[in-house]
């Protein structure tokens, strides 16, 4: 079963990230903030595809829904 921590670890293992924060209210629907240099020069769809690729089969089997906010380190620095 997917947990916020297991999703976080899976993303961090497959994608170089500066920050990954994952939450869930019910264990099936998750929300994540992901900051990665890999997102530079990519549109939101391409960024989300990188995360989906990092999660692989878990997206089809364990995770019912994942809402993502993807940012480059520069975008994160501007927002905070």
Radius of gyration, Cα only, in angstroms?
12 Å
CATH T-level topology: GMP Synthetase, Chain A, domain 3
Helix share, percent = 40-55%
Strand order of the largest sheet: 1-2-3
Kindly give the count of domains. Answer: 1
CATH superfamily: BolA-like
> Any idea what the shape is?
globular
Instruction: Report, as a whole number of angstroms, the end-to-end distance.
Output: 33 Å
CATH classification class = Alpha Beta
- Strand/helix succession: HEEHHEH
Assign the structural class, choosing from mainly alpha, mainly beta, alpha/beta, alpha+beta, or little secondary structure.
Answer: alpha+beta
Task: Estimate the mean pLDDT confidence.
Answer: 94
Q: Please count the helical segments.
A: 4
Strand content: 25-35%
Q: Any overview of this molecule?
A:
The structure is a single chain. By secondary structure, the protein is an alpha+beta fold. The chain has a single domain (4-79), classed as BolA-like (GMP Synthetase, Chain A, domain 3), CATH 3.30.300.90. 42% of the residues lie in helices and 25% in strands. A three-stranded mixed sheet has the order 1-2-3. Strand 1 and strand 2 (29-35) form a beta hairpin. Helix 1 (4-14) crosses helix 2. The longest helix has 12 residues, at 44-55. The protein is globular.
Summarize, please:
It is built from 4 helices and 3 strands, in the order H-E-E-H-H-E-H. It has 80 residues and is of the alpha+beta class.
What are the defining features of this structure?
globular, alpha+beta, 25% strand, 80 residues, three-stranded mixed beta sheet, single chain, 4 helices, GMP Synthetase, Chain A, domain 3
């Amino acid at each position: 079963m997917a947990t916020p921590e297991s999703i976080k670890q899976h993303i961090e293992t497959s994608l170089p990230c500066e920050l990954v924060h994952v939450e869930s209210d019910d264990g099936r629907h998750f929300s994540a903030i992901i900051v990665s240099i890999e997102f530079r020069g990519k549109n939101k769809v391409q960024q989300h595809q990188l995360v989906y690729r990092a999660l692989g089969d878990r997206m089809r089997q364990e995770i019912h829904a994942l809402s993502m906010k993807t940012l480059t380190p520069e975008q994160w620095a501007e927002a905070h």
